[in-house]
């Protein structure tokens, strides 16, 4: 997947001769490490490799512009040798690109490999359809011919030699519309429920004269997409011989929802992205009769079409796993196919402060592409997204991206170490310090990357402590613990390796190498201690280019096209150490050739066979014996997102689910006892969020129909893309985009930010559902030290209780049957599990606070009686937790019991000087009698009204214990509260604990003035000035700010009751002569 990092790079373009009527770049294309930019009067050819350098340009003269018009449309031949341009006066110019012998010096010892290019005009001719009334669409081309759409609805064919074949009519109405819907608005905004048939466009025919505004050609699928000015989109089939046989271009299907403005096709995934006038992008599955997969837009992020405008361009990444969308009025966003927002230039705050078209003043923080996006192209590796702003001729903006292609293709990836790799660096998630995940930028050594740019493959060892990285040639290793790189000593050896895939086999690096001279592939086995031909352990020739590879323990899986699976067993004869090079033997243990019409695999992973512990001990099978058995099943993720299970014994394949982007096999992967996810078979991520899969409880541990697929609700935030797992913490690590702004740069810096999401509660709930209470307890004990453990237990209890409440409500609607007695309910099992941990009392009351008070009785019938839980907290002196239980007691046991508990707690909190908590209890006690009566009469209310007063510090007027108040309601518990507070005040005043007294008065709103008037000659009396000054000076350290504030507070109160002795002492301490 793709995440932006760093500051965008600006590539300056040269200005044309005269001010153009069309203030925009007309054509932009990236092919073979080059990019071409065509403006109304110039052509520029740049290198898009490691060094962005202009290699050649062609500037048109003023008289040529006047005679033949400005450049209007352009196309670059796929072999990069020819450029065709159509001018506003309908002249066709064909340019030739030739590279000279002049090498560009970049600096450094090595030559750069970049040569200057000459761009020469080889043909200039008026086109036969030079009619002032006509307008044209863009060009599409293959190696021999190009096509142009005209505003009369016809296509015009021209060869690259400049031969005009003429216009020909295409009739979109003759396309197969057998499945057209009768309702013209069935698709609406593209958020149709279910998958609408592709033909469901409005019934009125496209008139013959509708203008063609865009053509999109996909030679791989032999399809031509024609977009008309009225928003209709039609696909046409193209002959095997490409655009040469124009008469074979036949209409196939009408697509989209009648308001298309641009389109782009992902040929590998067979997905068509259609941008609409409403700013929405619709994805259609071309393999499945062009049905709508999903729609994505910024409306979920609070942006309307008024702010972004219609979609202006869509660009798919080279591997088709993500696409960038640019809007006419503002910004661009990158989405994964599953709908996760990976990057966006549009800022999140101040959503509609300014009109989107208003350009901000220079002093405000600048947002990239504030004026909209005109053209976009990814480079061939997907490391750079080149963007041209709307109405801009002077620059190209290049955004840097890092990739994390997790479990796809020929490079193995461990989920334990999360790595994003950029063109010349690795962004490694540092999870050793679990409190905070950080991203470390690891730059590759310049000596390696300058010769072998860019990074192409990255694989992490199973423990995540060693990384293997391959560029264009060779291989380089990194030790995370020692922070050291290991490279080939001999550069000639390095240059002979063209790595097409990497795997780790224990301490051995397996390289899939392509041999240029013979056009063959081989596997090379190097020990991680030494990269050199002398220490090569084994060389294994392969039959053809491998499509997918995987390794598990000592077995290697290699899959060739179309679907031939070969499994090798690796045997090491001798010990692998720094000094010795043992023999490595490779034997083929299994070959399967599978006939299938499905799409190609994108990833395959072995599923280890797991023997239940009891079985292994009963049959006295040693663990080492068991480990040598080869895996009999593997998971297959296909390019179209289907996940299936392949039985390697009989070649049968069972489909599991679809719309999957990545998956991690977790069972049998961890050597450590502390792994929390051994119970899980695998996890997958896709459009539905995260799904956790478990082995079945059936007789056969991998019996297909018993696969339990649980927790589809474990949804990831749609801005966080999961990268991997920390098995010892039960946490999924994801990454999302952050932006930081600086006053000295025009653009913000993009920062990938790692996020952790726990899955422990899902695993525990699953074990409890299967009555595996011992395993659940063991799993919970393993993670008890983790920082998020209490949160996990709370989530677990909350989800189980929520499910119980929903089930009860569903049962009430049906006929209420008798309750089944006997076995424990899931809620009771969960409470029994959590009871083993000290967090139990906190967790139960936290869940109660988050749920409806009407269901508290059910919760506490399983968790234990509220008064008993309160008593336990009280005995353990967990007064804050105990205070939370008082509300529950008030609801379940009545106000009298809750008031008795609150009075006991009040006394205890005062003794511990917890005055904020004491204040909350006082306010609760003063209101409880009156409030509870009202709340209980209003039976519909979900919880008592004082919930708000108590749980959150209220901003209500806090009643003080003044005379009028106490005269009005001299009830028994009010008198008790008053006497408790007064006795505590006397205790503090006698000991002259003045800082505590101030905190007590502020926390409980105790009426100090009334108390001082009464106690003038009692506990508040000062014997004489000298001793009083000394004592109070000791108690209130005047050097500290808080003590001075406390003294000021007391002085104000003493002045209001004219208590002279105190006034003199405090004024002296504060040095306040005016008092």
TrEMBL record:
The keyword Membrane appears for this protein: yes
Keywords, in A-Z order: Membrane
Gene3D superfamilies referenced in this protein's UniProt entry, alphabetically: YVTN repeat-like/Quinoprotein amine dehydrogenase
Cellular compartments annotated: Membrane
Gene Ontology cellular-component terms listed: cytosol; Golgi membrane; Ric1-Rgp1 guanyl-nucleotide exchange factor complex
One GO BP: intracellular protein transport
Presence of the UniProt keyword Membrane in the record: yes
Domain RIC1 C-terminal alpha solenoid region: 761-936
Superkingdom: Eukaryota
Protein name (database record): RIC1 C-terminal alpha solenoid region domain-containing protein
Organism: Salix udensis
